[in-house]
Amino acid sequence: MKSYIQQQLGKKIREFRKIKGFSQEIFAEKIGIATKTLSSIETGNAFMTAPTLEKIVEVLNVSPKDLFTFDDDLENEDMYSEILKKLEFIKKDKELLKLFYKFAKSMI
Predict the structure, then answer these.
(1) Cα–Cα distance between 22 and 4 in angstroms, integer?
(2) Quick one: which of 16, 19, 24, 101 has the fewest CB in 10 Å?
(3) Whole-prediction pTM
(4) Which CATH class is domain 1-72?
(5) Residue 33 has what pLDDT?
(6) CB atoms inside a 10 Å sphere around CB 27
(7) Would you kindly state where each structural domain of the chain is located, as residue ranges?
(8) In this structure, what DSSP letter does residue 91 have?
(9) How far apart are CA 60 and CA 18, in angstroms?
(10) 9 Cβ partners below 8 Å, 6+ apart?
């Protein structure tokens, strides 16, 4: 049975992997696991070993706190901080920045 933590952690790993532009195949290779195993982790169907978790944190260049802070736990300042982090990731990608700009502009 999927636990809440497994599901949320898997979502965060997938989110950061995509932000970094890694396919599942490339990311799995970088952290030394099979693509099928990574898929199971990201869908919350499996959990990883501590060494794999350490490798994930290293390759994604995030802190463990980044992975274990789930959106429903965030306060306003934390959400704002997360938005700024995402903007840092996309600031050199003109297409993503345009998309975010249009979205933000439509909200205010």
Answers:
(1) 25
(2) 101
(3) 0.68
(4) mainly alpha
(5) 97
(6) 23
(7) 1-72, 74-108
(8) T
(9) 10
(10) 41, 44, 67, 68
